[in-house]
Amino acid sequence: MRKTNIRKLMIIFGALVVIASVAWFIRGKLLEKIPEGLIIASGRIEGREVTISPKIQGRLKSLLVDEGETVKKGQLLAEIVSDQLDARYANARENAALLKAQVEQAASDLSFTEQNTSASISAAEAAVNAARAQLQKAQSVFGKAKNDYERYSSLFQEQLISASAYDLAKMQYETGIADVSAAEKELKRAEANLKSALASKELVEVKKKQLKSAEANYRAALARLEEAYADLKETKIYSPSNGTILSRPVENGEVVNPGTPLYVMVDMDRLYVKVYVPEPDIGKLKLGNEARIYVDAFPEKTFNARITKIYEQAEFTPKAVETREERVKLVFGVELSVENPEGIVKPGMPADAVIRWKEGTQWIRPK
């Protein structure tokens, strides 16, 4: 009886183990079910290739990095020597300096002419005013002398005054005439000087035009200098972004032309994962859909991504897929641009992607 009971207990225990195993298996399958609104796919981290080329012609002085090296944005990669650019920049700088001196001289001439003209006009105007005052005074004195002379002439004819008194009146009259004539001449001379001084304003305008012309020439020279300097700066080649050098098809000392590839690099700021989505699911996706990327090298990290390209042409599943049944299915390529602020994701890393095509769907982590 005791053995029978033990056997029954063992059968019951075994049944319970089987039931528990089946339940656990079913639970696992349920947990593996992908929620509606998500698509899970796999691929590899890839980077967009960038060809770095010069914009000028010259001889390679130095190539500072080699294949396989990692570079930072703004890092100096190569230097080019161009005697022609050096000469053009030196000539442009010398010409600009010369024209700057001409501007300074023209400005000085204008300032001197303006000051001299202003002083001359002021002096001429003062002389005219003084001459007019002198003429008015002479005319006033002459008027009195004339009246006295005419009166004294009558009196002298009537022998009511002496000859000496008459002669004095006559002398004052004649002197008055001479003074008025001299004052009139002085006024005419002063007015002529004022006219000449006022005419010098035209010289000021000429000097202003000369200054404007010199300034225009100087600005043009500065533009040529900036252009020459911009070309000269192109003798130094800098990395446009963080990246890894894939190839360097040139060597030091070679003469290169604009567009000649110096380096080919992977842009580490523009990494993406290319995955393949089955044809029935491709209609659910659109550009900008959110995604999350997981890589084996950093199992605890999640990298945000977005769909930036959906291929128009369908293709068969790549041969890398193991089973023939899966390989014959039509799929569409989808590129997911990955945010990589720390620069830890590298091209070539295997990656799993979870794409969310329905807003509000709870994220899951692929197993």
Task: Describe the structure concisely for a colleague.
Residues 82-141, 173-235 form a coiled coil. 50% of the residues lie in helices and 24% in strands.
- Structural class of the secondary structure composition? alpha+beta
Text of the CATH class of the domain at 85-231: Mainly Alpha
Computed Rg: 51 Å
Return the string of H and E elements: HEEEEHHEEEEHEEEHEE
What general form does the structure show? rod-shaped
Separate helix tally? 5
Distance between the termini: 50 Å
User: Percentage of helical residues?
Assistant: 40-55%
- Note the quaternary state here: single chain
Major β-sheet annotation? 6 strands, antiparallel, barrel
CATH topology call of the domain at 85-231? Helix Hairpins
Poorly predicted regions are: 13-31, 321-325
CATH superfamily of the domain at 85-231, by name, is Helix Hairpins
* Strand segment count: 13
Please specify the SSE layout and strand pairing.
Layout: H1 2-32, E1 38-52, E2 58-63, E3 70-71, E4 76-81, H2 83-157, H3 163-233, E5 236-238, E6 243-247, E7 255-256, E8 263-278, H4 279-282, E9 290-295, E10 303-310, E11 315-316, H5 324-327, E12 330-338, E13 350-356
Antiparallel strand pairs: 1-8, 1-13, 2-4, 2-7, 3-6, 4-5, 6-8, 8-12, 9-10, 9-13, 10-12, 11-12
Coiled coil: 82-141, 173-235
Subcellular location: Cell envelope
InterPro entries: Beta-barrel_RND_2, MdtA-like_BSH, MdtA-like_HH, UPF0194_transport
Structural summary, described in words:
- The structure is a single chain.
- The protein has 367 residues and is of the alpha+beta class.
- Among the domains are: 33-51 and 267-356, Efflux pump adaptor protein, beta barrel domain (Elongation Factor Tu (Ef-tu), domain 3, Beta Barrel); 85-231, Helix Hairpins.
- The protein has helices at residues 2-32, 83-157, 163-233, 279-282, 324-327; strands at residues 38-52, 58-63, 70-71, 76-81, 236-238, 243-247, 255-256, 263-278, 290-295, 303-310, 315-316, 330-338, 350-356.
- A 6-stranded antiparallel beta barrel has the order 1-8-12-10-9-13.
- It is rod-shaped and about 155 Å long.
- The model is unreliable at 13-31 and 321-325 (pLDDT under 50).
